[in-house]
Amino acid sequence: MMHLSPTHFGAMQRARTILPNRPDARVLNRSIPLFFIGRNKNGFWLVREAQGRIGGMFLSRRSVLRFAQDASAPHGCATMFVGRTFELDTWNCGNPLVGWLDVALGLLSRFIPDYPPPIPIAEKYRKRDWL
Prior knowledge:
By secondary structure, the chain is an alpha+beta fold. The protein has a domain at about 30-115: Double Stranded RNA Binding Domain, CATH 3.30.160. Helix content is about 20%, strand content about 15%. A hairpin with a 5-residue loop joins strand 2 (about 45-50) and strand 3 (about 55-60). It is elongated.
């Protein structure tokens, strides 16, 4: 059976993600793995190892933290929450259903305008007539 990833169905290839630099060795030792945690444009939780070797998509923040902990077991890891959105640029080793949901939302967003058209309001409901 052939494995199909979400990219087979028209999902855009992910561009290289620009993430913050790793803290200086005086702050965080190089031997400690660092995981970036944040959200993508559709609001799903992402986790990505700083060097891009492993990452995943999840529904909850708790799942993201558990993934980082399990991926760095038994020694542990450091986590850094990223304030802005970013996209996962590695293979999704997390929840495969979330990967498919992300693709589906991306495809649907092509047909939904960013800003809906203004709703016409009848003259009698304008604010100046209320006073």
